[in-house]
Design goal:
79 residues; mainly alpha; globular; binds zinc ion
Length: 79
Protein backbone atom coordinates (compact mmCIF):
# COMPACT_ATOMS: atom_id res chain seq x y z
CA UNK A 1 0.00 0.00 0.00
CA UNK A 2 1.42 3.32 -1.09
CA UNK A 3 0.90 6.09 1.44
CA UNK A 4 3.53 8.47 0.08
CA UNK A 5 2.24 11.82 -1.19
CA UNK A 6 1.99 11.83 -4.96
CA UNK A 7 4.06 14.24 -7.00
CA UNK A 8 2.73 17.26 -8.86
CA UNK A 9 2.40 15.51 -12.22
CA UNK A 10 0.37 12.70 -10.71
CA UNK A 11 -1.92 15.25 -9.16
CA UNK A 12 -2.44 17.04 -12.45
CA UNK A 13 -3.41 13.82 -14.15
CA UNK A 14 -5.88 12.88 -11.42
CA UNK A 15 -7.49 16.25 -10.84
CA UNK A 16 -10.53 15.52 -13.01
CA UNK A 17 -11.13 12.18 -11.34
CA UNK A 18 -10.70 13.87 -7.97
CA UNK A 19 -13.34 16.48 -8.71
CA UNK A 20 -15.68 13.76 -9.99
CA UNK A 21 -15.18 11.81 -6.78
CA UNK A 22 -13.83 8.91 -8.84
CA UNK A 23 -10.60 8.28 -6.94
CA UNK A 24 -10.24 5.26 -4.70
CA UNK A 25 -9.82 6.17 -1.00
CA UNK A 26 -6.08 5.51 -0.93
CA UNK A 27 -5.39 7.66 -3.98
CA UNK A 28 -7.65 10.39 -2.71
CA UNK A 29 -5.81 10.43 0.62
CA UNK A 30 -2.49 10.82 -1.21
CA UNK A 31 -4.00 13.56 -3.36
CA UNK A 32 -5.20 15.45 -0.28
CA UNK A 33 -1.83 14.98 1.39
CA UNK A 34 -0.05 16.51 -1.57
CA UNK A 35 -2.43 19.47 -1.55
CA UNK A 36 -1.61 20.14 2.09
CA UNK A 37 2.09 20.24 1.32
CA UNK A 38 2.09 21.99 -2.05
CA UNK A 39 0.77 25.53 -2.45
CA UNK A 40 1.30 25.33 -6.20
CA UNK A 41 -1.11 22.45 -6.60
CA UNK A 42 -3.59 23.94 -4.18
CA UNK A 43 -3.72 27.02 -6.40
CA UNK A 44 -3.86 24.81 -9.46
CA UNK A 45 -6.82 22.85 -8.13
CA UNK A 46 -8.54 26.09 -7.19
CA UNK A 47 -8.13 27.37 -10.73
CA UNK A 48 -9.44 24.11 -12.13
CA UNK A 49 -12.43 24.31 -9.82
CA UNK A 50 -13.26 27.85 -10.91
CA UNK A 51 -13.04 26.76 -14.54
CA UNK A 52 -15.44 23.89 -13.92
CA UNK A 53 -17.89 26.08 -12.07
CA UNK A 54 -17.97 28.37 -15.06
CA UNK A 55 -18.64 25.43 -17.34
CA UNK A 56 -21.09 23.70 -15.04
CA UNK A 57 -19.72 20.29 -15.94
CA UNK A 58 -16.51 18.34 -16.38
CA UNK A 59 -15.52 17.66 -19.95
CA UNK A 60 -11.92 17.81 -21.09
CA UNK A 61 -12.79 19.26 -24.46
CA UNK A 62 -14.50 22.21 -22.79
CA UNK A 63 -11.54 23.25 -20.69
CA UNK A 64 -10.33 26.62 -21.86
CA UNK A 65 -7.44 26.40 -24.32
CA UNK A 66 -4.81 28.17 -22.20
CA UNK A 67 -5.55 25.97 -19.23
CA UNK A 68 -5.66 22.87 -21.39
CA UNK A 69 -2.23 23.76 -22.77
CA UNK A 70 -0.84 23.87 -19.24
CA UNK A 71 -2.31 20.45 -18.58
CA UNK A 72 -0.80 19.03 -21.73
CA UNK A 73 2.60 20.44 -20.85
CA UNK A 74 2.41 18.73 -17.51
CA UNK A 75 1.37 15.46 -19.15
CA UNK A 76 4.21 15.65 -21.63
CA UNK A 77 6.77 15.71 -18.83
CA UNK A 78 5.05 12.91 -17.04
CA UNK A 79 5.17 10.31 -19.77
ZN1 LIG B 1 2.30 19.88 -6.18
Amino acid sequence: MNTEPMDCRDLVELVTAYLEGALDPETRARFDLHLLECDGCENYLQQFHVTLENLGRIRDEDVEPAFRRRLMEAFRDWR
